[in-house]
Amino acid sequence: MRWSQQSALDPAVTGTAATGTVAAGIDAPPAELFGVTGLVRSVQTPEFAGVTFHEVLAKSALNKVPAASSMPFTWTINPYRGCSHACVYCFARNTHRYLDLDPGQDFDRQVIVKVNTPEVLAAEVAKPKWSRELVALGTNTDPYQRAEGRYSLMPGIITALAEHGTPMSVLTKGTLLRRDLPLLARAKEDVDVEISMSIAVYDDALQQTIEPGTPTTTARLATVRSAANLGFKVTVFLMPVMPKLTDSMDHLDTALRAIREAGASRVVYGALHLRPGAREWFFAWLEHEHPELLPRYRRMYAKSSYASKEYRAWLSRRINPLIDAYDLRGATDDDYPMTKRGDRTRLGAASSTAAQAASLTPPPQEALF
Ligand code: SF4
Fold it and tell me: Residue ranges of region Disordered (predicted)?
């Protein structure tokens, strides 16, 4: 039995009993379980075994980031809530609680799909008052998760933004991105388009257990190569770096060499960040897969969602020379000309985060999906 199956049977781990009740079958809207308006239907298909898509009609597509946020962008679009990529450490897990769903297996298997996102967005960006500031995609959940193969929302989103002079950044783990690279390249002729690929684990066995729904590292690196061949300066997010799992010199060196060889222009890294929701799920995974590490992690994340200052300083000393050695710093003036929030109309979100990473203090994972 896989650890996640075992955990799903344990209410102490999953938190709620929503799983199983929600998966009510084709066209059976479980409206009573959601604080969601606009629910059209819930769908299960053989191609996505174990996953239920809840199709909703969204009232808006653009989300404004609160002014108090430290995020270096003002607007985001998240066409999906929940993510079948199922990364154990995913910081967005807790957002499923707002839907009366649990942040563990429900997050992986109960995916909300805002099916009208392209149409709603097209109307929003056509308004004369639209500011044409950069829009960040992939800041909460992955826009190229497997559901995108079924719903194809991204082509309409990219087209709407480009047609209305709106720069965009895309951050993903999904190799489905390749489908849209020609479209993104065309968009780049009119607006700034920033592409970032998240690749944290360069050990196939570990990758398959800690990111069980994601494409392989090799496939993601190949996607980086495809984007680079089309002229994109691709950023790779080497995060989260996980203590004693992915922070050895061997692993970091293997990672940075592979990223360099794939044609990426720069790397952003950060130590594991464990918010409530993700923390319980990660600890359950750790207990099953690496019980010897559990006491160490409990100590490190006892008082904070962030890795300790000492660990982050240690990681900085270890990784920064490697980033320089592989020429992946990417902090040229051309890459990061503006860092203030008000200057973001032509600056990719990932670029800003990369600019932070170029400093000696590595950023936490919070800017990521
Ligand atoms: S970390 Fe990203 S890709 Fe992984 S489950 Fe979360 S949203 Fe999906």
Answer: 337-369
